[in-house]
């Protein structure tokens, strides 16, 4: 608990991702978690393609692939008979630009274990049983106070402590939102017999709104059960309560549920924090935005919050860049969070399919103050866009991007100025996805600067490398 440069409250996917990104940059950081162990349930089980790209960069993608699997086809049941298939997602095949073009299923508890192992491999630490109860700050740093134990002083604090964030409440930051669905919902991880593991089993309600869905969790023996209840109903989270729901709504018997490993209830809502930064405290993940689980946007948007913030904290704390760079975190991420909240709500209400928008590959920062497009006639890719994968003169681009550095692509052009050590340079001919020109790719995989010639490039880069 020595005073770190960055204190991260919360060891969920957001906090662990940020801890990994800071650890690989050599920034002293500490993750604290109020619980005594990592979250035990499957809750956020859907990994979107853009998040898979993030995990590729952070060195955990192989483990994520090994521990999960693709989404099963939905199977609709009625009166104990199979009535037909239901496809949850619009189909998408991998391409050279987007090699991870379909969602991947992995239970949240397993994702967090993989992230924790990677964090510890890089020398990072999580301290459990440390509940943040309040925050004070001054011009030089932040002090976090805990339910027990001594306070911790840090240069910056990142609140990744969930939708009921104690840090956010301590700072008096409001959260504006709406109830997405008034009906209470049960989610549980169960062991069950009598259902195959090739399908996501859907039991539509008959004359009510009490849907039941049972999905095999890839890479485990478990199923995730989701049940909606009538408005005002009491949700019984006991093992017997879960068994009664299965027996009442399916052709299965209560005893076919052999084990209930975890259970929780919630009412889907959407909410956005009024701001993502106050002084030396920044909000990320569910502390900043709360989603309906429909469409699998919450965890993914949260991981990308951390990925956006990690390189900026690294630049400020490691490279001496002005702290004003941290203002661009809210500038870039809050509009994205708002957009994803709208998308999640629309999917939940059946207004939007789980298609291209949910994969998050088309998101970018074209209007950011960090984005400079200097070409008079931009090609197929513009500054602010996600930098796609591909091969340039035998070099895979995602391999070139991997690591806490900037990457300059010089495609079909000469006259590249000398670059600092923080920039990897890749030369090659014009590329189908990029066109011709110079493309400076940020550490988080977005094109920050694009030009036909290098004029202005060194000055742009100096804003972020402190040189």
Q: What does this entry look like structurally?
A:
With 467 residues, the protein is of the alpha+beta class. The protein has 3 domains: 6-68 and 106-179 and 270-359, FAD/NAD(P)-binding domain (3-Layer(bba) Sandwich), CATH 3.50.50; 69-103 and 182-267, D-Amino Acid Oxidase, Chain A, domain 2; 372-465, Glutaredoxin, CATH 3.40.30.120. The chain is 25% helix and 27% strand. The strands form 7 sheets. Strands 6-5-15-16-17-14-18 form a 7-stranded mixed β-sheet, with helices on one face. Strand 24 and strand 25 (395-396) form a beta hairpin. The model has no long low-confidence stretch (mean pLDDT 95).
Quick take:
It is globular and about 70 Å long. The strands form seven sheets. Strands 6-5-15-16-17-14-18 form a seven-stranded mixed β-sheet, covered by helices on one side. A six-stranded mixed β-sheet has the order 8-2-1-12-21-20. The chain has a five-stranded mixed β-sheet with strand order 23-29-28-26-27, with no helix packed on it. The chain has 467 residues and is α+β, with helices and mostly antiparallel strands.
